[in-house]
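Kindly review these tokens for lecture notes.

. . .
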Amino acid sequence: MAINSSANGIATGIKTSPQSNGDINNTAAARAQVLIEGDISYTGRDLSISPAEDDAQVRQDYRPFLLAEEIAKGDWVAELELNTALQIVDREIIRKSQERLKVLVLYGSLRERSFSRLLAFEASRILFRLGCDVRVYNPAGLPVKDDVQFSHPKVQELRELSRWSDGHVWVSPEQHGTLTAVFKNQIDWIPLSTGSVRPTQGRTLAIAQCNGGSQSFNSVNSLRILGRWMRMFTIPNQSSIPKAYTQFTEKDGPEGGSRLMPSGNRERLVDCMEEFVKYTIVMRPHFDLFGDRFSERMQRKAKEEKAKAQEKPHENTSA
């Protein structure tokens, strides 16, 4: 390696590329981009759970995003080019007879026409086509967080879904510059620990928000903070939909109505769901590693030593 000197005469040991001179964006330092060509045999493939193999009760309770078969076969989700992600899911999950990726979807509004719910449904349709076991939790009836109603059926349902999941998708509106109380209440009911079980530790997380006005990132930023405190791995990409009331078709519109219209915002949502699936496939075999922490090992060791000391019979110190 050639040794170069900096302006102050200190040897840097870095060989300077002539092409980088005047490169304000420092593109010469970027890693070479690898173009991945998806297998065209996966074009149009659908890895979703068929009605015949699905659990009827789960389908009724947790898959409100499903469309009539004649609509789903020709809608925009069915036409997406997802060849690379489909190939990975087929190779790593379907062909190996592994459990499908288990995804819990949460949204943050109880309005009759909730755009966060509509966006959550669109995300769910993409994930379902990619072969995920997608379950959407309905927050209606969930009590406000307190220290009394932890046995409430809606609370137990939410906690069980979180424990069941491999990853979450969180979609919140932005209200007063942050996420809504409806959404935060759901997170507050999912504790960092339940006994020795950490319901969300090591899970993957994808986040999105809806805006009533111009584009903002306050809610997704807050969601990232929540994800970190819940010890989840939040994917780098995210989705923020500006003026959500202009982004969806009418309730009686095409493709089943209330569908996200073509735009860069819709493409970003697809990016997020595709990325989420890839990260979850890579990380799921190693989930247990993310629950192994030095501080917790030391705490367990101290408790074990204390328990052993208490079990030893007391020495007779009398004369």
